[in-house]
Specification:
about 100 residues; mainly beta; 6-stranded antiparallel beta sheet; 3-stranded antiparallel beta sheet; 11 strands; about 60% strand; globular
Amino acid sequence: KQWYQRRVRGADPHYSTFDGTGYSFKGDCVYQFFGCKDIKMWADHAKDDASTRTKSLTIEFKTDTIKLEGSSIFLNGDEVIAPLHKNYKDGAVLSIQDL
């Protein structure tokens, strides 16, 4: 399979990785989607009465940390409003659109 295949997320949460392997999470835990060089992404899960929910999604890009929690967006700990665009010295661009 090719490396650019998508990952799929479902309820409770269930994940299917790039190679088709499935994982289910039934409690408090952190799942790292990927991590390489200048970018990492993971989901933080919390156990509710009936199931597990995704509490937040965090992305580290270059020197910044972006956290999506509910309808809020945080950049390096400060709440920001989308859209947000940031240009880096090496030509990379961070772009956050409306949720």
